[in-house]
Design brief:
The chain is of the alpha/beta class. It folds into 2 domains: 346 residues, Rossmann fold; 111 residues, GMP Synthetase, Chain A, domain 3, CATH 3.30.300. A 7-stranded mixed sheet has the order 4-3-1-2-5-6-16, sandwiched between helices. A 7-stranded mixed sheet has the order 8-7-9-10-11-12-13, sandwiched between helices. Helix 1 packs across helix 2, helix 5 packs across helix 6 and helix 7 packs across helix 8. It is globular, with a radius of gyration of 22 Å.
Length: 473
């Protein structure tokens, strides 16, 4: 089910058969990369499965990506073609790349079908998704169907998903959360896709779909349950799976006490989806207190050459590596993946303490601070700048940009935003607050920006805000 209708498995199969025919007619061959720009929609599901069925490699981007994200995907994967909703082609400047494009309409209206396909090799690279890291450009994460299906199995195990359940998904279908929820649902259940999240309309959509399982960023669950409380209504949800950020204790208590929802705390990443989680038979006290125990085949340990408190993981859900071989050099050690997160292990259960990586997580979407720093280069009158994050009650975290400008010049929120958009930055990555500094930004002796000082000192400095944060009167 998406915002436009609902489909059966039989209808899904027919649509996939048509889409496979369209892709093969466009020249897609086994092993080819196909860039797929995804909304959370039925046709995005069709396109994803059709690419798998041609034994090509799906290179996924969210529909909210910017032209620079598309350019990066094309440059790093050399795709045979690009697949997307037709209306996105012009704003994303896809014609600049000289590659054939196929619209969702073309997939859906193909006149032929391809039935009786062979099962794709589950061990071969089958999907590339991009994750923000400490580098300025998103890293390409390579998964096989086997590793993704292991992640989906772990997710189903942790929340007790059955054929009677429906998963509500507002996280991007192009990311690891979306893919694991989709593959979990395709084990025989249902999925309710939400493309444009809004507390009131999304809550109604969830109710119409009879969703029983909710996953993704904690801020999504907090917003939906808060709206339920405001409207004094019940919910069909029985389980929420929370991970990817520090989880507010009041959210867990509200889910349990007011709505009789069982929370599942989980730890995972784009590289290792759903690695630890609380289980359905765990005491509620354990579900609230930590990030769960390793799931079948998953292993965890603390300490690496990078940092003595860094979490390392391995297991069948682990990705195959990054697109850029140089990104793998410090990421792996003797088969273990170094996560960049700091953690403890207490009585066999994981307790995440924080992260080494410089990221802001906004509504579950990760934004690299280094990427924003690099994008600001060339901003007129700016002497120095740095991005950082602060807590935000609506989005979990808010991206802030500190700017020191040459006097008597200054910068405005609108001028910074337009500069970044003109440079190809995705709109959802825009800073939502600009803080003006009249003195040098805080740095270490070696010249590195001290971002936590920016967050502390910047709270008392003049700022300009995105429209959603401005006073209404």
């Amino acid at each position: 089910m998406d915002n436009g209708g609902s489909w059966s498995y039989a209808q899904l199969r027919e649509a996939v058969e048509r889409a496979v025919y369209a892709l093969l007619s466009a020249g897609v061959e086994p092993g080819d990369a196909v860039v797929l720009i995804c909304p959370n929609s039925f046709m995005a599901v069709v396109a994803t499965l059709a690419i798998f069925r041609t034994s090509a490699v799906a290179v996924t981007l969210d529909r909210r990506c910017g032209p620079s994200d598309v350019a990066h995907a094309v440059a790093t994967t050399d795709p045979r073609l690009l697949v997307m909703p037709g209306q996105l082609a012009a704003p994303l400047r896809v014609d600049e790349h000289g590659r054939r494009t196929v619209s969702f309409h073309e997939l859906r209206s193909a006149t032929g079908t391809t039935a009786g396909w062979a099962e794709p090799d589950k061990a071969a690279p089958r999907i590339v998704l991009f994750t923000s890291g400490t580098t300025s450009k998103p890293k390409g994460v390579i998964h096989s169907l086997h590793s993704l299906l292991c992640g989906a199995h772990n997710l189903a195990t942790s929340c007790g998903f059955t054929s009677e359940d429906a998963s509500f998904l507002s996280s991007p279908l192009s990311g690891i959360t979306g893919l694991t929820h989709l593959l979990m649902a395709l084990r025989g259940g249902r999925i309710v896709l939400e493309d444009m999240f809004d507390a009131v309309t999304s809550l109604d959509h969830l109710a119409r779909g009879g969703a029983t399982v909710l996953g993704g960023a904690p801020v999504i669950a907090q917003t939906l349950l808060g709206e339920c409380a405001r409207q004094n209504r019940s919910t069909s949800l029985r389980t929420i799976v929370l991970g990817g950020a520090m989880i507010p204790r009041p959210l867990l208590q509200m889910a349990i006490d007011r709505f009789s929802i069982r929370p599942v705390r989980a730890y995972g990443s784009s590289e290792a989806p759903i690695h630890t989680a609380s289980r359905s038979d765990d005491p509620l006290s354990e579900c609230i207190a930590n990030d769960g125990a390793p799931l079948p085949g998953a292993e965890i340990e603390i300490g690496s050459a990078n940092d003595e408190s860094e979490l390392r993981v391995r297991g069948p859900n682990l990705f195959q590596g990054y697109l850029d071989p140089s990104d793998n050099e410090r990421a792996f050690s003797a088969g273990w993946f170094c996560t960049g997160d700091t953690a403890d292990i207490e009585a066999g259960r994981l307790v995440i303490r924080g992260r080494l990586k410089e990221l802001v997580v906004r509504k579950g979407m990760k934004i690299s601070l280094q990427e924003i720093d690099d994008a600001v280069f060339g901003l007129p009158s700016a002497i120095e700048w740095a991005a950082y994050g602060v807590a935000d009650g609506e989005t979990g975290e808010r991206l802030v940009l500190a700017v020191r400008a040459a006097p008597p010049h200054g910068v405005t929120y609108e001028s910074v935003s337009q500069f970044l958009l003109d440079g190809g930055l995705a709109r959802w990555k825009l800073p939502e607050q600009i803080v003006t500094w009249n003195e040098p930004l805080p740095r270490t002796a070696s010249g590195k920006i001290i971002r936590n000082r920016l967050a502390i000192d910047g709270s008392s400095m003049p700022g300009q805000f995105a429209p959603r944060l401005r006073p209404t009167n």
